[in-house]
Design goal:
Helix content: 40-55%
Number of helices: 11
Strand order of the largest sheet: 1-2
Oligomer: single chain
Shape: globular
Order of helices and strands: HHEHHHHHHHHHE
Structural class: mainly alpha
Bound molecules: zinc ion
Largest sheet: 2 strands, antiparallel
Strand content: under 5%
Radius of gyration: 19 Å
Length: about 325
Amino acid sequence: MTVDAVSRGGASAAPPPGSPDGAGTGPDTDAQARRLAYLTVCVPAAGFVAALLWSFRYGFTLVDGLLLGGMYLVTALGVEGGLHRFFSHRAFSARPAVTALWGVAGSMAAQGPIVFWVATHRIHHAFTDTDRDPHSPKPIGGGRLARLRGLWHGHAGWLFTVRRGNWSKHVPDLLGDRTVMRINELYFGWVLLGLAIPAALGGLLTWSVSGAVGGLLWGGLARIFLLDQVTWGVNSIGHTLGSRPHRTRDNSRNVAALAPLSVGGSWHNNHHARPSLAHNRHTFWQLDVTGAFISLLEALRLVSHVRRPRQGSRAEPRS
Ligand SMILES: [Zn+2]
Ligand SMILES: [Zn+2]
């Protein structure tokens, strides 16, 4: 299979079930990929509704809020610092123990196993906003709904149609890393851990079953749902609306309003202009929590070889 197999709208032929191509990189068949998409999109959405109904009946406690905020921060950094800047772009280096922590924190966000996330993201950079981009929000079809259909595809719809292509071609570094592959195999265990931690903390902090349920719903499922919308919002809104200080070949945008919740990921035009850098902040006022956190880890000598722009360097030629 070629990368053409990863396409918009599900127009390409499916790979043969059980194909050895890219073994171990993600779901083995399209049916498995679709099941994973339903789990990824629908379960947190149902959990978010359940959390709202629960709080309507029993209230929203301080512990609920702390668990939501704390778990959100850990997993948002896991996605933007771990899955994105570290695993996808190799913007800095880390020892195996720190690599494992990035992998676990990112996996607890429940946006798919590491190799799936990184492979589709690298394909996004290689073919940004072309028909080969897995999640470009370009308008689909004609009529008034074309733009909305494109936005939905770029946001979460692509998860249901993305084909298992030659992913191994895009992630040779991950396939050769035993730590990463072990974390990848244990993906569902990390997702469950991300639900169990807030449930256990909620129960212990309040010494009540309702505290555990509140922790599970707000620190677990609702937290996954909310972070999903922000991460996927960078893919959909971040290629549709916002400023373009860099003239990249794609349609990437900086979405300032999403910067705090995306922990700096929404400076997306900055990122497409300089994808290999560890920091997304190109102007002093641009809030980039992930970049600040990477600098903190560097000062603590927990990460190294942090990629920064060279003096006087210009935007990288590829998107
Ligand atoms: Zn992008
Ligand atoms: Zn990227």
